[in-house]
Design goal:
It contains 21 helices and two strands. The protein is mostly helical. It comes from Streptomyces thioluteus.
């Protein structure tokens, strides 16, 4: 069933979801519960009421009237965060800062940005996006107070904050906002005087391109970003190795999506060499890399290339007790790649075991991912009874891969 096939009242009820009661929505809008009930029953819905409800639920009125479908997998809290984040990005870029904004020192802004990255790599994307909202104007206020010629640090903070906004928007499927935020990040990075900043932003833009199916552009930009910061191993700092390793590994990911096996092989060789040089996992500048990251991401690359046997061989060589070195998001992504490889090999029960464990341990993270739904559809062909239980965890129906499902329960495909 398509989004436009629902009535206005049904759309309100779907968007409200299980997290927001009619009474709560009434309080959010300033309307009475009776008015909300009538609106959901299609008995009475004025334009003023519709606009108040749309604003409270964090969607455009075009979504409310069925002209545009909502983004799947987004709960009401996600939509509210994204709307506020969008306003903040555009207002900050236009120089429109809140009257109440107080300038924090650079260390305080940096601490806030680091907290955002920690939330992001834990898979808490809504919380990370919500924290970017106050950080962006704080960074802008700090920039405004710096003397001409002494703004390099402030521009670096602005680049980081905008890049975070772009990452959250891109993951949430808000492509226009992702393009806008990464563009502002690029402007700030170019003024930061930091040799790593432009490459970090360029890699972020390549990721936006990748999710927008612009594979050629993504590969060109990812390659350039990696080459621009390639260090000399003999004197490279751990920060340089971390940033370079994550960049060259991402270039391998993009090349795998294009099916370029030779280029993938070249990049993975450099990725493995960098990881070996580092000796362990490290985080720096919103990136993370190390030998375990290189090994686990190689599994996803093999899956993308259709090399199921190779992916399973790589999985067998990765000790489970070493996965704790990864961030939560990285561990979860590896679990999805592992489950997909097992599904491709028709190891249905093993795939469901891997998938179910990840879904139970990280339900919030999984809600924003595409692979769980894809894996369920693939394994569903086996018609196993367990598929129904795993499907319930992500809100998809076994064997069904089309049509609209409520945004609060459907994986972002």
């Amino acid at each position: 069933m398509q989004w436009s096939d629902y009535t206005n009242g049904e759309r309100i009820k779907i968007l409200r979801g299980k997290d927001v009661t009619q009474a709560a929505l009434a309080e959010m809008t300033g309307l009475s519960v009776v008015t909300i009930q009538k609106a959901e029953q299609d008995k009475q819905l004025s334009l003023n009421t519709l606009m108040k409800i749309a604003n409270a639920l964090g969607v455009d009125t075009s979504v409310m009237v069925g002209q545009q479908a909502p983004r799947r997998a987004m709960a009401q809290s996600d939509r509210t965060m994204m709307r506020t984040l969008s306003q903040t990005v555009h207002d900050t870029a236009a120089g429109l800062l809140p009257d109440s904004i107080a300038m924090d020192e650079a260390a305080a802004v940096r601490h806030g940005i680091d907290r955002c990255w920690n939330l992001y790599w834990k898979g808490h994307y809504t919380e990370a996006g919500a924290l970017v909202v106050p950080i962006l104007p704080q960074a802008a206020a700090y920039l405004r107070e710096q003397p001409v010629g002494g703004q390099s640090c402030a521009w670096g903070l602005m680049a980081d904050a905008y890049r975070l906004a772009a990452y959250v928007a891109n993951l949430m499927g808000a492509r226009d906002l992702a393009y806008s935020a990464i563009g502002h990040a690029q402007t700030a990075a170019d003024r930061s005087g930091d040799e790593l900043q432009p490459a970090l932003v360029a890699s972020g833009r390549a990721w936006v391109y990748l999710r927008d199916a612009r594979l050629g552009d993504a590969l060109s930009l990812a390659e350039k970003a990696a080459v621009d910061i390639e260090p000399r191993f003999s004197r490279a700092t751990m920060e340089q190795l971390t940033v370079y390793g994550s960049h060259i590994n991402f270039a391998a990911v993009v090349a795998s999506r294009r099916g370029d096996k030779d280029l993938v092989k070249s990049y993975l060789s450099q990725s493995n060499a960098t990881g070996a040089r580092m000796g362990g996992e490290h985080r720096a500048r919103g990136t993370l890399f190390g030998p375990m990251t290189a090994d686990t991401q190689a599994v996803g690359i093999a899956v993308a290339l259709g090399q199921t046997g190779k992916a399973l061989d790589l999985i067998r060589g990765i000790p489970e007790d070493r996965l704790s070195a990864l961030t939560e998001a990285a561990r979860n992504r590896y679990a999805m790649d592992k489950a997909m490889a097992q599904a491709d090999a028709r190891l249905w029960d093993a795939s469901l075991d891997t998938l179910e464990k990840a879904l139970v341990e990280a339900p919030v993270w999984a809600r924003h991912q595409a692979l769980p739904g894809v894996i369920v559809q693939k394994v569903g062909r086996a018609s196993t009874a367990r598929v129904r239980r795993v499907s319930a965890l992500i809100g998809v129906r076994p064997g069904v891969d089309s049509g609209f499902a409520p945004a609060t329960s459907r994986t972002a495909l």
